[in-house]
Structures are given as C-alpha cells and as structure tokens.
Amino acid sequence: MDYKYELVKTDEHLPIKLILHTSDKQLFIPRHWHENVEISYVLAGKIDQIYTDGREYTSRQGDIVLINSNSIHSFSVSMGKDRKAVTLFISYEFMKSIYPNYDQFVFDCVSINEKDPIRLAKFEKLRLLLDSIVTAYLTKKNDSLAHINLTGLSYQLAYFLIKNFKVTKRTSTRIKTNKYLERLTVITNYIKENYNQDLSIDLLSAKFNLSAEYFSRFFIKHLGMTVLNYIHTIRLEKSYPDLMNTDYPIIQIALKHGFPSEKSYTRVFKSIYHMTPNQYRKKHHSKNITMK
Fold first, then answer.
1. What are 118-158's pLDDT values in tens digits?
2. What pTM value is reported for the model?
3. Which long-range contacts (CB under 8 A, 24 or more apart) does 165-169 make?
4. Which domains does the chain carry?
C-alpha cells in the first residue's frame, strides 16, 4: 500500500482483485485512497484498527468493512497468530459501467456492532457470497473456466451491494471535488518524495501557494490527521526496513529518514508499535542482516 492516491489494478480481465493476508507480523498501512471499492473481510484473528472517513473499527472474525471510492483509510494490526483476512477490490470502471448513477451514492456496509435483524441477515448472505469468491479465486489456477465463474460472482456481488447497502452520498463527509483530490495527491506525492528533508508547515504551504493556516486546515479536514503526523507515519514506514534488516545504529536510522533526533524517532515509533525501536529490533530482528 502507498501513502497517497493508490492505483489498484484488477487481475487480468476480471473486475475484481483479491488479496489474502496471512502474516502474523505487525503492520501499519498509513492513510491513502483510490477509486475502487475495497472490502475488508476477516476470516480469522482480527485487524486492530481500520480507519475510514473519520471512524475507527476493530474488525474480528466474520466482520466486513466496506471502504467506498476515494475514502481516506488506513489499517493497523498487531502481532498475532493464525490471522487471516481478505481484501477485495471492485473496479470503479466496472461499477460505473453496470450502474451509471454509481457516483451519486455510497455503500453503508459495515457489519461491526450491527444489531438490526434485517441487516444482520443481509450480512450473513454477503459473507456466503464473499466465501464463494475467495474459494473461486484461490483455486482459479486449477480451473480453466475460473474467469467465467469469477466474472459472474463479481456481478452478483455488485448487484447485492447496490440492492442492499446503497445510500445517498453525503458529500460533507468526503472530498467534494476532483480539485481537492488532485491537490491532496500532489501534496502527498511531494511529502513522500521529500520525506527525509526538513519539512515544515511554512515550507510546504509556500510550496503549494497556500497560507499556513489554510494548509493545516485542509490537511486535517481531508486526511483526518495533522501534516506532522502524516510526515511521521511516512518516515516511520520508510525506516522500518533499515531497523529490521540492517545493524545501523538507531540514531543513524532516525537521521537518515528525516527524524531530527533519536528521541523523536523513538517517540513516534512507540506511538505505533508500543515499544522502542531498539526493543522492537531485539524482539523481531531479521536473521538476514545487511551490513553496510
């Protein structure tokens, strides 16, 4: 996953893409967005935190969280055994082609804490449909006609979502225009490319011809976090491979990836991983150390 607008390509000529997650390792995927519908479906274990459009969820076995097109979202999982989850992407172009009014609505499809008996029954049917898609997807190499089956299941999934979970779009909770999406993409691209430099609100706002006050408000409103916190998450993700796969001193890793000091790096690292970089390295250090 990237930290900005993400282009998710579907598989071959299928309108969907499926990723099966089985890692027991801790993982943090910073906030990003894309045009495709994304469905997170937990088969075993849990996802500690799913953030989407200002709300946070803990997703456990059987839970379904649908993330709408262009919705800002992130994921965080702690260490855990026997975790298994599915991420399913439905192509925006596919949804638009079969339902021209697609841009005028969103899906209200989160099973967590659902109490309504009618909606609970719908979620149970949705789970059965997702299970069928997962089975077909994972066995497609052994079936020369799998693409036909998966295409049919894709239409069934789109039909079921539109029929049962469609609601009128509330633009106030989402980025309202392409102008804002494009601006946010340019800004996050720049931050990603220059994350290890000395970035400040004044520098960034001047770069994009915005006042510092407006720049800060714009970022919080549309990404749900401060500019500084966003920069920190990128620096943290970029530093992780060096922490786990090299013997670099912590201070060297911190400075290499834009943190002003080891203390700053440690504070940000602990906020995500709940231990210091040195403690985390000792506990999970890769056996394949790269000496440089």
1. 999 999 999 999 999 999 988 888 888 888 999 999 999 99
2. 0.69
3. 165/66, 165/107, 165/108, 165/109, 165/122, 166/105, 166/106, 166/107, 167/105, 167/106, 167/107, 167/108, 168/104, 168/105, 169/103, 169/104, 169/105, 169/106
4. 16-172 (2.60.120.10), 182-284 (1.10.10.60)
